[in-house]
Amino acid sequence: MALQKNISLQPLNTFGINVKTKELAIIKDVAELKNILSNNLSPIYILGGGSNILFTKDFDGLILKNKLKGIQLINENNNEVYLKVASGEIWHEFVCYCIENNYCGIENLSLIPGSVGASPMQNIGAYGVEVKDFITEVEALHLKSLKTTHFSTNDCEFDYRSSIFKTKEKDNYFITAVTFKLNKQPNINTSYGAIQSELEAMGIRNPTIKDVSNAVINIRKSKLPDPKEIGNAGSFFKNPSVSNEKAISLKTNFPDIPNYPQSNGTTKIAAGWLIEQCGFKGKTYGNYGVHKNQALVLVNYGGAKGKDIYDLSSEIINAVNNKFGIELEREVNVI
C-alpha cells in the first residue's frame, strides 16, 4: 500500500486542529499493517477515532489510521456472550450493536467518542461503569517484533482511565482486537449521575438497556458539544483522587465540593466543579475556550492552534492547584 505524504490531519482529529503528518497509512487488515511496519523507520503514532488527541505541531513521522473492522461471536452460553471486536470499529456503533442484540453491560458507555481499540487503552468509563469489567482479552501487535500478544484482563493492569498500554507498554503495541464478555440478562445501573432523573423525565419507570442508553445519550448531548459542530475531545482532564484526609479538609473549606469515596481509601473529586469554581466555565479566548455547559471540555471554535488549547489547559491546572491544592491531570494525549 502506498503511503500518503504531507497530509493534513484536520479531518482526522475531533479538535479540528490543522496540522500535517509526514506520512499517513490507512490500516484495513493486519497483514497490511505488518508490511508497513516491516519497512518503516519513522516515528509512529496510532490514530483511532481521533477523539482523545491534541496536536500542537506537525507530526514528523508515520500516522497509522486504524480502520480494522469486524464483530465476531466466539462463544456463548445461557447467561453470557463473548464478542471479538476489531479495534477500528467505532465505539458507539458497537454499543448500539450490543443493545440491538440484547447484549447487556456497556449501555452506560453510550456516545463515548473514539474506537474500540482505545477502550482498553483508556479504560473508558462513565455513569458508574468501566469497560475493564467487560474485557476478557486484548489482542495487540508489537510494533517492532511484529509478534501478536494476547493480554488477559490482569495483564492489562487497568486503572482509572489507564492501562499498561498507557504506562509500561506505551507506544509499543497496535491493538488489533478486543474480546468482551457481555450479559444476556440486564443488570440495570441508574445510580450514577442524572440517569434516574432523566429516565423519570422520559416517563420510564422500568427501563430497558435501550432506555438507559437513550438517557445517557440525552445527558451527554445536553452537556457536551458535538465535535462536528465545535472542535473538542470530550473531557480534557481526569477526575483527581485525593486522600480521605485531604477530602475532609476540602469539605471543611468547600462544603459543596462533589466528592466520591473510593474502596481503596481515596476520594475522587469532580474536576469539572474545581475548574468551574476557578471561573473558567464558558470563558472564551477568541477562537477557543472552555465550553459553557461543561467545564471539563476545552473547545476549538475554529482555527485555533493546538498550542493555544494546551496553554489554556496549563492555565487551568495552575489555577486549580493554587485554589484547592490539587493538580489536575490531562486525560487527552498531547503530541
Q: By helix and strand content, what is the structural category?
A: alpha+beta
CATH class of the largest domain: Alpha Beta
CATH topology title of the largest domain: Uridine Diphospho-n-acetylenolpyruvylglucosamine Reductase, domain 3
Shape: globular
The N- to C-terminal Cα distance equals 26 Å
- How do the strands of the widest beta sheet line up side by side? 6-7-12-10-11
The secondary-structure element order is: EEHEEEEEHHEEEEEHHEEHEEHEEHE
Q: Tell me the major beta sheet.
A: 5 strands, antiparallel
Determine the number of helices (DSSP H or I, runs of at least 4 residues). Answer: 8
**Percent of residues in helical segments?**
10-25%
Mean model confidence by pLDDT:
93
Overall radius of gyration:
20 Å
Number of strands: 19
- Quaternary structure annotation: single chain
Strand content: 25-35%
- CATH architecture type of the largest domain: 2-Layer Sandwich
Contiguous low-pLDDT stretches (5 residues minimum) are none
Structure at a glance:
By secondary structure, this protein is of the alpha+beta class.
Care to describe what's here?
There is one protein chain. By secondary structure, the protein is of the alpha+beta class. It folds into three domains: 4-66, Uridine Diphospho-n-acetylenolpyruvylglucosamine Reductase, domain 2, CATH 3.30.43.10; 71-183, 2-Layer Sandwich (Uridine Diphospho-n-acetylenolpyruvylglucosamine Reductase, domain 3); 231-334, UDP-N-acetylenolpyruvoylglucosamine reductase, C-terminal domain (Uridine Diphospho-n-acetylenolpyruvylglucosamine Reductase, domain 1, Alpha-Beta Complex). The chain contains eight helices and 19 strands. Strand 8 (125-126) and strand 9 form a beta hairpin. The chain is globular and about 60 Å long. The two termini are 26 Å apart. The model has no long low-confidence stretch (mean pLDDT 93).
